[in-house]
Amino acid sequence: MNNKTFYLETFGCQMNVVDSERIIDLLAGIGYQQTDEPEQAGLVLLHTCAVRDKAVRKAYGHLGRFKPLKERNPELIIGMGGCIAQQEGKQLLEEFPYLDLVFGTHNVHRLPEMVQQVAEKHVRCEETDFLDRETRLQLFPSRTGQEAFTRFVTIMQGCDNFCSYCVVPYVRGREISRPSAEILAEIRELAEQGVREVTLIGQNVNSYGTKEEEISFPALLEQVNGIDGIDRIRFTTSHPKDLSDELIDCFGRLDKLCKHLHLPVQCGSDNILKTMNRGYSRERYLNIVSRLHQVCPDIRLSSDVIVGFPGETEEDFAETMSLLEKVRYTEIYSFIYSPRSGTTAADMTDEFTAEAKQKRFNRMLDTQQEISRQIWEADVGTVQEVLVEGESKKGAGQLFGRSTWNRIVNFSGPEELAGTWVSVKITKAFRNSLLGELVEPSM
Ligand code: SAH
Ligand code: SF4
Predict the structure, then answer these.
(1) What is the CA(362)–ligand 1 centre distance, in A?
(2) How many angstroms is it from 334 CA to the middle of ligand 1?
């Protein structure tokens, strides 16, 4: 009998998370149920990320783990999608004889047909062609009808920025914005189903609409702000070069916009910013930060930083460290530079040893951890508004939610509070979360 259960593992960014949600829906449409155990599944899928070598090695490691499953059960279908699949295409089928299907970043919608083909005709297949604009516009992932109080909504896809280190423009294709009417309709529907907070996502959300005859990103935010039932709005990821004054003003003007912005700086030195092709200077970035604080004094920022980019001198690195001290991010996602084949930086001479990069990386981590610790410690004693999302991972009658600053807050309380707003007095700060006590249900 056909085993119609599937196991899905997702790596990488929020774009993959949303595409994986779509995969779950699509596979349900052909009668497949999800399972947490690959050993039980008739179909196993890896949804991969190619942004750094570490992610790639991890994906191949996990793929290798599926090989014995196939040896035990030759009927098992194994598939790989996402950015590695997009980059490697057919090559993957040649390299991994136990792999049955490969689907690219523009081909998620084809998955049901591909799975059926493999199951019925016992063929192996690969689809990694980029789609034309018109077809892509029809295929933005959306998912309503699921119980959750917070949701991602895709508003654009792709990237035209070509930062010299980054593989994303090659594996995700050109930038394209979803029609605003469709975005707003989806959010209205989500609100009706009980969703209270939406995060607008895309590789580069603040250049929304610039390539089409669409409303601007600030105008889109304003319209989302007007939707009844939605109480909070976030967006990610933003590029500093496209952060307009009008968008900065939104943080002072739109009551539902959370007071947190993820604004990846990548590095603090003008020389390196230039070779990274980031399109802004240190000064311009710092100007944006100070204007954000002018319109919204208690806004908090987080960032991405790359260490060990080719040619990064000790002075360049010191500039990054001093920028961290100046901006005082709540947290940073820091990465050791990883050369990606096909990008322009891959051809730059990289004279660093892995050890030297690791040393700088550790110094940076120490500095940032101290800054983060000071920020979160200062929150102890304050009362914060939290949207209760459900039972905490900590279990034991604990609930969790997030503050406007996107920080996880755990506290004790009855389950019925899920989906409501509460005030929580912060009692203790941990590295990844805050602990608090319920003050009173609010709103
Ligand atoms: N579009 C987003 C995020 C893209 S990838 C942006 O522009 O901010 C997420 C992060 O991965 C990047 O911000 C960058 O810090 C990191 N990254 C991308 N390519 C990398 C590489 N080759 N080596 C190390 N880190 C990289
Ligand atoms: Fe990559 Fe730069 Fe595009 Fe971000 S903006 S996805 S870092 S090329």
Answers:
(1) 19
(2) 9
Residue 381 Cα to ligand 2 midpoint, Å, equals 39
- Probe residue for ligand 2, chosen from 166, 238, 304 as the CB with the greatest number of ligand atoms within 8 Å: 166
- Integer Cα distance of 159 and 38 in angstroms: 34
pTM summary value: 0.95
Atom of ligand 2 nearest to the CA of 266: 7
Q: Which of 97, 131, 165 is the last residue of a domain?
A: 131
Output 354-357 pairs: Cβ under 8 A, ≥24 positions apart.
356/308, 357/307, 357/308
Q: How many domains does the chain have?
A: 4
Indicate whether 249 and 270 sit together in one domain: no
Q: Which two three-digit tokens encode residue 349?
A: 């001479």
Supply the CATH number for residue 405's domain. 2.40.50.140
Q: What is the extent of the structural domain holding 332?
A: 266-378
Which one of 378, 393, 426 terminates a domain?
378
Residue 87, domain CATH: 3.40.50.12160
Query: Where does residue 242 fall: left (phi above 0), alpha (psi -120 to 50 degrees), or beta otherwise?
Result: alpha
Residue 233 token pair = 């709005």
Ligand 2 pocket at CB < 6 A: 159, 161-163, 166, 168-169, 203-204, 239
Running along the chain, 443 residues long, what does each successive block of 10 average in pLDDT? 89 94 94 96 98 96 96 96 97 97 97 96 96 93 80 96 97 96 96 95 94 92 98 97 97 98 98 98 98 98 97 96 98 96 93 91 97 97 96 86 96 93 97 92 50
